[in-house]
User: Fold this.
Amino acid sequence: MKFRGKDVLVWSVNNYLGLANHPEVRAVDAEAAAQLGMGYPMGARIMSGQTDHHEQLERDLSAFMQKEDSFLLNFGYQGCQSAIEALVNRHDVIVYDSESHACMIDGVRLHQGKRYVFKHNDMESLETQLKRAKTLIGKTGGGILVVTEGVFGMAGDQGKLAEIVSFKKEYGFRLFVDDAHGFGTVGENGRGAGDAQGVHDEIDVYFGTFAKAMATIGAFVSGPADVIEYFRYNMRSQTFAKSLPAPIVVGAIKRLEMMITQPQHKEQLWKVARALQSGLKKAGFNIGATNSCVTPVFLQGGLSEATNLTVDLRENYGIFCSIVMYPVVPKDVIMLRLIPTATHNLDDVEYTIETFKKVAAKLAEGKYVGEGIANWA
Assistant:
């Protein structure tokens, strides 16, 4: 990638499988845009926004996800938020992981009933909140919705789905999983974290986005046919919004086909991810508990040090990566978040690790200490 005219090695991009600029994808995208135009269809799905392409993609997603039905969504953030809100009423209780993505938190906030949060991936805390929820719905006559992620996008650890579903029999909840970072990257052909953990069938509503592995716009929910049909008429973010443009849908069909039939992209992604993570650990870096492609690197320092360090990486070493600071991580912790892709190679990995050794040494020597925040522009 070029940043202000300079070539940089980018570890902060949503393109897991390297499909964004793949020639097969580019050809389909261009042909669909030329034939259909980016304005088609010109209405909401329930009005004049339905096309054969939208229906085909939903069928393809359902078959791949091994769920009864699927509903195509315009955007990941709005779609996830709206799906959670649509699933519950004021008599129900939501129990959710404390590190759920912002779109999930916003969906929970729209809920007019009670919501209980459990400590991240802490099953004892989950059961405590499930007991509270079960007591409450005994009075309200509602149900329980457990909300978590398949792969947590910041630190890269998978949600403990196999352990969560073990509580289903006793507490009778439905499980909603946002698997934005798992779809396309883990499980058979990228079917997601539930598939990887052997509990895919226990996920009642599966949410996936096209933004990460497929490098395009859009998202979907998959689940029982009656639940998906309910979504089609009760998800406000879709009912009152223009349908996803047909060329984007046609491009997503192609991307899904390649994800299923060309496993070499996922294999290359994991080759790079494993080399990056094992190399970082061997070099003494703390990468937390990631068991996905998301690769965090935890360092000690404040905000000014973090910004100065990342500017140094970009301007003097040609590496572009994201930083994450408080309140996402504790105070005085710097998290460099690396997203490997199938377009990276082992030379990229080696150079990055050697560079990180150099900037970590400079950080320890206090060379990034400053009074203000560095200008990223």
Remarks:
- The CA atoms of residues 36 and 247 lie 7 Å apart.
- The two ends are 16 Å apart (CA to CA).
- Residues 264-282 form the longest helix (19 residues).
- The chain has a mean pLDDT of 94.
